[in-house]
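Appendix B, example 12.
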Amino acid sequence: MAIFNLGSVNADLVYRVPHMPAPGETLAATGFQRGLGGKGANMSVAATRAGSHVEHIGAVGEDGLWLKARLTEYGVGVGHLAEIAGPTGQAMILLDAAGENEIVILPGSNREIDRAMITAALAGASSGDIAVFQNETSGQVDFARSAKAAGLRLAHAAAPFEAAAVAAVLPDLDLLVMNEVEAAQLEAALGLAPEALPVADVVITFGARGCRWIATASGRSEDFAAPKVVPVDTTGAGDTFTGYLLAGIDQGHSMSAAIGLAQRAAALMVTRLGTADVIPRRDEVSDV
């Protein structure tokens, strides 16, 4: 089985700051690092390190070939990661002393993905494979409809959140992953509580308080407490959770077991500084 991920690839530019700047304030950063990031790349690396085969669908610009090389180094399939003219996606991340962050995104090549790229990538998929996408690329509706037509199980991580973008693909989804703020925004926009959404499985994350799984057909709802850790950097924790969750499902685990695995991976992730480059391996997660 395989996971096909239509996802962003960004150069993460991380600046450590003593506190988040107020309007008009100039701060001196206390540290800097550059690494592989983007919600899509993070999820691809997480699912790969969890033991699944991942094919990443996306694009990098002329300045992003090092990102493609790093994904290859990490074992992610990049045969459908196009090289196009223009800038690669970038994320400027401010990280404070408490491990909280503020992020500014330049979409760049992530918004240049077209239907032809998606069609070519999914031609290699088989019924029963998993497809996943976020909200940092173009081509989302085409991807959702093509994946469902091919018999893939379709998951959506609804971030960065836009209610209209989620509504456009909602009828095709099998799994929807949101944080609690996104869940509240979607309910306000659609007038539907999470348990009333036309999606078989809904997972809502609550950060350090854990997460909730809702199986809408049966009405079952189960809460999961998160492992207790001291956070260093919360960037990429949600992506790590989703990547590991999908890998667990891909490998035949129950939803409860896959969630437990994903929570342990995310808990370990927040104790590390960085994004895709420091996502934990499966053998490390087993020890949490």
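The CA atoms of residues 242 and 254 lie 15 Å apart. The longest strand covers residues 10-16.
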